[in-house]
What does this fold into?
Amino acid sequence: MSWFNYYGLIIMLIIMVPNVIYAATHKNAEGGKFNNRAVIIAEQAGRYGCFALMIFNIPFTYFNFWFNYALTIYLSVNGALCAMYLIFWAVCWKNNGKVKALALSIIPSCIFVFSGVVLANIPLIVFAVIFAANHILISYKNAD
It folds into this structure.
């Protein structure tokens, strides 16, 4: 894989589709109850860092797949996680609660951390850990 990760782009598109649909259908939704500014900023930094690093590989910080059949495992695990994410979105569309909040925050966190480890992408791992800790906390605190 070169500087551009087509697989990562596809994964990002898959997990963004339900979010875009939700945002379009809930234009007047109020913000979350949890308002810790530092946590929200860290979560957003982690989110956008993960988005960028899933698609673009920075030379000398990215070491590609580091074991046999890593591409197959990368695609299989991320495919299963994306499918789980879409299923949770579909099943929990009308429901709110901690199960939905945690599932829809843990699954993308797992995608980012797993991708960083399998690709040996150090910045992606760092941003994924920052994103995961803060996103899961915010989702849990905002759940009904």
